[in-house]
Design a protein that fits this description.
disordered N terminus, elongated, single chain, Rossmann fold, alpha/beta
Length: about 325
């Protein structure tokens, strides 16, 4: 049995299938009607496919790329039935994700030689940032890693308390200087705490405000400089959390944050609550940033590493 099969259990597969139900019902239902009775990919079908992809919030630019890839493929590999067309579409969407640096992750891992591994988590309020941090802490703790959560969102009411609740649930360490303190100092001291305790990982929360790009850039840059001062080369990951239910608005948020800081990975939350799960494809394509995690529910264990093949296969079930 492969390592992928060992990790991606039937239970995880079912969780992914259930989480994508709303997107699948919308996407596959419409696709089935568009394909019905067709033996060739003609202009009428391509127009319908474009509409289906855009309604699934894939985005215009990415939709055009998928259609171009499909046209190039069927020009040499004629399809004869719905099943064959679905397979061609799946392969081309997986190929698009491969082009965009998204790997097939099989487990919650990070470079073991980097200790502590420092992750800075960014995103606007309400996207599930604190919840994602808590779920990540739980997954790494479950794998025997020593983890501390740093309360760097010092301006939002109850943000520190909420992160403390998640640290308690995940049974990890927690570091805070309280409300209205300097987030850069929190970052520095959280890394120091992780070093003193010989921990494997520290995950640092940040404020979710988007007043202006200039303000955001200055604040995030200050936090990053402070962390780097304590541990040269850190943070090792800047994770941007986006809410999958917001569709194209998530793409706009990604644009602002990628302009403001060096985002290295993405987490897409609340995919179980939307029919617009196609936004995952658009985000990956437009920003060339790997998607690493997807949220499939409210439970502490309902966070998965993103596997592009499993995701696309689930969409077409």
């Amino acid at each position: 049995m492969s390592f992928f099969k060992k990790f991606f259990t039937k239970e995880k597969e079912q969780e992914l299938d259930k989480g994508l139900e709303k997107t699948k019902d919308s996407f596959l239902g419409k696709l089935g009607k568009a394909v019905a009775g067709k033996a060739t990919v003609d202009e009428e079908f391509l127009d319908k496919l474009e509409q289906i992809l855009i309604e699934s919030d894939v985005g215009l630019e990415t939709t055009v790329k998928i259609i171009d890839r499909l046209e190039a493929r069927v020009a040499k590999d004629k399809y004869l039935n719905t099943s064959e067309l679905n397979n061609i579409l799946k392969e081309e969407i997986i190929g698009l994700l491969s082009d965009n640096n998204t790997e097939d992750l099989v487990d919650f891992t990070f470079p073991e030689e980097t200790k502590p591994f420092v992750m800075l988590v960014v995103g606007v309020n309400g996207v599930g940032k604190t919840t994602t941090i808590g779920k990540l802490a739980y997954q790494y703790k479950k794998r025997g890693k020593g983890v501390v959560l740093g309360a760097g969102d010092t301006f939002r009411a109850a943000a520190v308390d909420q992160l403390k609740i998640w640290a308690d649930r995940a049974k990890t360490f927690f570091y805070s200087k309280g409300m209205y303190t300097d987030p850069a100092a929190v970052g520095y001291e959280t890394v120091q705490f992780a070093e003193n305790m010989s921990l494997d990982m520290c995950i640092i929360d940040t404020a979710g405000r988007l007043h202006t790009k200039k303000h955001l850039m200055e604040e995030l840059s200050k936090i990053k400089r402070s962390i780097d001062k304590k541990l040269p080369g850190a943070p090792h990951e800047v994770l941007l959390v986006l809410d999958g239910t917001t569709g194209q608005n998530a793409i706009e948020q990604a644009r602002k944050f990628t302009e403001a800081t060096d985002v290295t990975a993405l987490a897409i939350t609340k995919l179980d609550g939307t029919a617009k799960g196609g936004v995952v494809l658009g985000i990956s394509d437009q920003f060339q940033i790997p998607i690493k995690y997807i949220g499939m529910g409210e439970g502490i264990d309902q966070l998965q590493v993103f596997n592009k093949r499993a995701y696309v296969e689930s969409l077409f079930k």
